[in-house]
Amino acid sequence: MDTDDRETVIALVGEILIAQVERLRAGLDAVAGPGPAVIDLRRVERLDTAGAWMITDLRRRLEADGIRTRLAGVSRTQSELLETVEASLPKGPLPDRPRPGLRDRLADFGEATVAAGLTLVELTALLGAVMARIAALFLHPGRLRFTSLVHHMQEAGLNAVPIVSLMAFLIGVVLAFQGATQLQQFGAEIFVVDLIALSILRELGILLTAIIVAGRSASAFTAAIGSMKMREEVDAMRTLGLDPIEVLVLPRILALVIMLPILGFVADIMGLVGGALMSWIELGISPGMFQARLLNSTDAIHYVTGLIKAPFFAVLIGLIGCYEGLKVEGNAESLGRLTSKSVVLAIFLVIVADAAFSIFYALVGL
After folding, report:
1. What's the chain's Rg over C-alpha atoms?
2. Residue 24: is it exposed, middle or buried by C-beta count within 10 angstroms (0-12/13-18/19+)?
3. Which of 262, 229, 267 is CA-nearest to residue 248?
4. Which of 15, 32, 163, 193 lies at a 20 to 30 A Cα distance from 75?
5. Residue 70: how many CB atoms within 10 A of its CB?
6. What is the DSSP letter of 28?
7. According to CATH, where is 3.30.750.24 located in the chain?
8. What H or E segment, with its residue span, contains residue 10?
9. What is the DSSP string of 191-247?
10. pTM of the full structure
């Protein structure tokens, strides 16, 4: 930098490329004097877009502070690049984004409501298409893709047994421990068996199993079908005369309908085992006493009312996972967003369905 009585000369030397922009910009912020400034590019060997942006930004900031600037020693190529960069930048500061008001929030709420309604309609249409394919299987059983069905039964069901078993066992342990802490105050320790049985068999066993399966399978279904959509494999199926609902959706939903009741049964057993173990350790209730109390005080209807929810939860989880997968567009961002959405929506609908079952059971006296 050279300074005389009239103006400050900022001489740039060598290569002004993206790798040097941050370092040069930090140094240039401190060199401008109070008078007019000249940016000398005579000894600049190479200049890229990032360097041109740095020079243009420096000029704008100096002129905003009331310091006149001009360029010197600019070649024709450099001049064209600088003009292109300057033309692409906004002429002034970006206007502040107005804060959303009541009208904007009402509009957002309306859009979300319409989107939820459309999702419900499309899910109903997909459910109808699946039911039509199931009806067609009774006329043409050979159209069932048995290999695909068994594969998804293993992926969605058999492979989920360890995590479901561990979860249910720990839930039984926690229920027994918490129940024992409270019931000991009243000398009613034996009723911890009733608490565990009703909680596990009627609600928690199948509900938590469905939530785990929703997290595993809904995301897996969306990711698998979405990846096929991105690679245009679904379109290729249609071109070959194959029905994507029959090939991709139906085996997954049927696999869940078959395996979720089995997983629910496993969860019930492991939950009772965990509760019995903690009752033995914490309260001294032997396994034989636990079993006798369980058989004498717990009706089979509690097990049935819990397990009957499983097929409905399975249909919801399978529909959501496949529906979101079929909505994936040709980019990775869409795949990730819809995979996350499918998990959240599946868990939400499972909880809503469980609440609906609870209300229904209360109304009919179960």
Report:
1. 34
2. middle
3. 229
4. 32
5. 12
6. H
7. 2-88
8. strand 8-16
9. GHHHHHHHIIIIIIHHHHHHHHHIIIIIHHHHHHHHHHHHTTHHHHHHHTT--HIII
10. 0.71
Residues 154 and 252: their CA atoms lie apart, in Å, by 11
- The two structure tokens encoding residue 365: 């006296």
Q: Which residues pair with 72 in a beta bridge?
A: 40
| Upper half-sphere CA count for residue 58 (Cβ side, 13 Å) | 27
* Cβ atoms of 59 and 20 closer than 8 Å: no
- Which are the contacts of 283, defined by CB distance < 8 A and separation ≥ 6? 176, 180, 184, 189, 192
How far is the CA of 168 from the CAs of 6, 185, 214, 283, 286, in angstroms? 82, 26, 16, 20, 20
Instruction: Tell me if 192 sits within 8 A of 176, measured CB to CB.
Output: yes
Length of the chain: 366
Which pair of tokens denotes residue 223? 């990711």
Q: Give yes or no for a contact between 77 and 51, defined as CB atoms under 8 angstroms apart.
A: no
Answer yes or no: are the C-beta atoms of 345 and 317 closer than 8 Å. no
| CA–CA dist 243, 144 (Å, integer) | 12
**Residues 214 and 350 sit within 8 Å (Cβ to Cβ):** yes
pLDDT averaged per 10 residues, the chain (length 366): 60 76 68 68 80 79 76 81 79 66 83 89 90 88 86 90 93 88 78 87 90 91 89 87 87 92 93 90 84 85 89 93 88 86 92 92 86
Q: Tokens 């009243």 belong to which residue?
A: 186
Phi, psi of 69, deg, nearest 5: -135, 155
Within 13 Å and on the Cβ side, how many CA atoms surround 36?
10
* Helical pair 332-364 and 205-213, crossing angle rounded to 10 deg: 160
Tokens of 359: 């209300």
